[in-house]
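Researcher: Re-running this chain for the archive, since the previous output was lost when a drive failed. Same request as before.
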Amino acid sequence: MVRPNNASIGTAAINNRPLRDRRGCELFPDRIDFGILKEGVTYGAEIEVKNVGIDACRFRIR
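Model: Regenerated structure tokens:
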């Protein structure tokens, strides 16, 4: 029985990128402008976090 090996194709595409390009997260939008902030007020915004690397990413939301 012959099984196709698709892993080598996907791995080759990833391995050609520099290590710094294979790690990290992207945030959308990449910039948020809250304007003038007032003391004692909580501000918030909706963002999307996308893992663009080959490793699992951890992050903390406060």
